[in-house]
Amino acid sequence: MMIFDRFPVAAGTLLASVVALNFSMLAAAYGQSAQAPTSDPTNAGKAVFGKANCMGCHKWHGNGGGGYGGDALSLRKTDLTRDQIIEVVGCGRPGTGMPFFTRGAYDEVKCHDMNRQDAGAQMPPEGGMFLRSKDIEAVADYVIAHIKGAGEPTYAECIAFFSSSSRVCDVYKTQAQKPDDATASRGKGQ
Amino acid sequence: MERSSGHTRMLMRSCLLAAAAAVASVMSTLPVSAADEVSQERLLNVDKEPGNWLHHHQNYSAHRFSTLKEVNRDNVKNLKVAWTMHLGGIEGGGIWSHGGLEGTPIAENGFLYVTDGWGSVYKIDAHGGRGALVWKMDPKTDRDWAGAVACCGVDNRGVALWGNLVISHTLDGRLIATNKETGQVAWQRTVADPDKGEVITGAPLIVKNMAITGVAGAEYGIRGWIAATDLSTQKEVWRTHTIPGKGEPGSETWKDSNNAAAAGGGSTWVTGTYDPATDTIVWGIGNPGPDWDNAYRPGDNLYTDSSLALDATTGKIKWHYQHTPNDPYDYDSVAENVLVDVPGPSGPRKLALEADRNGFAYAIDRTNGKFVWGLPFVKKVTWTKGLDPESGKPIEYDPNKSVQAYIASVTPSRTNMETHICPGNMGGKNWPPTAYNPDLKLWYIPVIESCNRIKVEVMTPDKLKPREFWTGGGPSQPFKITGSVTAIDVTTGKIAGKMETPFPNLGGILATPDLIFTGQPSGEVMALDAKSLQKLWEFNTGGGVNAPPMTFTVDGKQYVAILVGLGGAWDKWFIDATPELKKIQPGSMLYVFAL
User: Fold this and answer.
1) How confident is the model at residue A178 (pLDDT cuts 50, 70, 90)?
2) Would B329 be classed as within a structural domain?
3) How confident is the model over A45-68, as a mean pLDDT?
4) Same domain membership, residue A124 and residue A49
5) Which of A25, B178, B447, B592 has the most neighbouring CB atoms within 10 Å?
6) Contact at 8 Å (CB) between B280 and B226?
7) Which residues neighbour B112 within 8 Å (Cβ) at sequence distance 6 or greater?
8) Average pLDDT of span B227-240
9) Which among A66, A185, A190 is the nearest to B473, CB-wise?
10) Same domain as A131, residue A107
11) Based on the structure, what is the number of domains in chain A?
12) Is B141 part of any domain?
């Protein structure tokens, strides 16, 4: 299902801005009717980032990267606006591995003015779960607030993301933050 | 009064029954007789206890051949599910949304020892025609830490037995010894470090009171190794790096000025084999990193993509045979080396067989590492015209070039940044194990018949970061991928048969005197005639088969067991090549069949 030719980016972006309005209207109509934003949209968005497995491709820090899955773009370096992010998450990006997360996208919900037939080989994959428009907005807010424009991932950011006792963040500790657990984690008696 | 005393009597009776049952279950788990202690003697002579399956690969030679023949070509059509057991471990972690099952059960005296992807060990009592969980040891693997640097899934391929201990690995880098009777952890030792991108997925190999551990992480810039831990002192006996250090023999095959060797890959995540006659461990070595940008690491990049022979006592390298020098395809050689002796003109020939990701099957003289024969076992190979009949190197290999291009028009490179290549980077043949029938001299390969598309990313030293992908590009899947079971006659080095399957073989193979067993990621477990490869029996498990079958006896009856639960690399990275498999649900289940 992966596509040879990437969806032309310039055209995509143009389309995106044209379609964004159209799309969010449809999404709103399809999903929950307009709701007051939750008091802490950023936390709700972080939860979506985990549960919809954005981190499976873009990593917890959003930097994405190559690897076995091809390249998920860096959300830290993205130029997209909130509306554009909402549109990419809802519709996916045709001709790439970025999945769509709106139920009915390319069916009842038109994306880039295309349905499945129009999209053909450019049809993006379907996300692991569908997100309501409120969740898509929340994850976009989270990306804007915590990921877009950020530099290299830091220990503080990582701890804030995981808030667990996992050692997943240890690697981001600066020399000063490291006691001597570099050796401790290696085990004794070698 | 009457009624209440009757009630009391009932209660008493059920208490007594329960107590009796408790005693019985204690009795059945108690006998710590010498017969239950696993010794080197027993590991060397598994043919004396055909009802047990003591090694990950069945014997030290990785034959995965059982002499049991209660189930045979005449009656296999009557094979039925005897019992099943749901296991756990499908939780996600790191970049993974769920775990899967890739393990081979170990069977000893009617008890099975199996693992789930996160390394929990389950001891199951298989007596009496049903399975009962005796204990479960949950190592509480640090899921996010390990799962974020596991390139290819939440995987654990099983345990080994030693003394009264069950020896296992965890994805987050530990070697754990669990008391076989109680399920209590006796000790654990950190062997690999996820902070460096190292994780462990393979089963340990036990040799002479040592547990041999291999590591994964060539997609994350590790420098691979094989390590031996003394099971009495829990100390490291040796650790041999698969990429030579500065000045060591082989270091001249890393010709760059970036110190590429320090992050050069060479993983060892498939359990190797052992030849007691020469005290030699033979182990398959993985791909170099960055996978697809071979211009970053000019030179042959030893010992990546090689079969490596080590002195078991010291870990010293005895010989190596490299399959794909300066690999630009992610064609690793981690696969098991199957040790077989076949008649030759001047006495028996001692071979090591390896079915490589690059699509070729190799026979190497395991006394000296010299090439004997090689042939393509997949239908389509585009990266080379074939192997040099003398050296076994790809014909286009040029020792005077530091960056190999092979057939340049299809090879990923800095001047060919997007290309289609066959086999694709999953192979060929991946970790799912082969099996060898020593009577028929047939070697059965679980094949992935594949092509895929590779995009190259030019790497620079600043892109090398701890715990981040170091692949120099990536694959995508515009082509449908299928599979086969391909049999090779080891006496001639020729293909003896091919049974094509709609999906790649992601499980591996078990051989018995006149049958082979295998599975499909679409759910089927099947038995084929050992000679004709004709399908004689099939059962759909309703899950994805991603693990090898094995067989054992209990109460004098033969059973065939297989873990079912699609995980691993496939359903995250390669699923687009098999869109039908998108409907296979994550699962975690042990199936046991009998007549």
Assistant:
1) low
2) yes
3) 89
4) yes
5) B447
6) no
7) B105, B106, B122, B123, B124, B126, B131, B552, B561, B590
8) 98
9) A66
10) yes
11) 2
12) yes
* Structural element, H or E, at residue B531: none
Q: Taking CB atoms and an 8 Å cutoff, what residues of chain A touch B193?
A: 185-186
Domain that holds residue A173: 155-190
Q: The domain containing residue B465 runs over which residues? A: 77-594
The pLDDT of residue A5 is above 60 = no
Could you tell me where the beta strands, DSSP code E, fall in B383-534?
418-421, 435-437, 442-449, 452-456, 473-476, 482-489, 494-501, 510-512, 515-519, 524-529
- Contact, B485 vs B518, CB < 8 A? yes
DSSP-based three-state secondary structure for A68: coil
List of chain B residues whose C-beta atoms are within 8 Å of the C-beta of residue A186: 190, 193
**Among A27-31, A108-112, B163-167, B169-173, which stretch is predicted with the lowest mean pLDDT?**
A27-31
Q: Supply the CATH number for residue B171's domain.
A: 2.140.10.10
Please check the confidence at residue A188 and state whether its pLDDT lies above 90. Answer: no
A22 CA: distance to closest CA in chain B (Å): 30
Residue A1 resides in a domain:
no
Q: Report ipTM (2 d.p.).
A: 0.70
Q: How far apart are the first and last CA of chain B?
A: 52
In terms of Cβ atoms closer than 10 Å to its own Cβ (0-12, 13-18, 19+), residue B574 is: buried
> B519 pairs with which residues across the strands?
B525
Our count of domains for chain B comes to 1
Cα A154 → chain centroid? 19
Which residues of A lie inside 8 Å of B (Cβ-Cβ)? 1-4, 53, 55-57, 59-60, 63, 65-71, 97, 125, 128, 162, 164, 166-168, 170-171, 182, 185-187, 189-190
A29 & A112 share domain: yes
Q: Which tens digit of pLDDT belongs to each residue from B131-187? A: 999 999 999 999 999 999 999 999 999 999 999 999 999 999 999 999 999 999 999
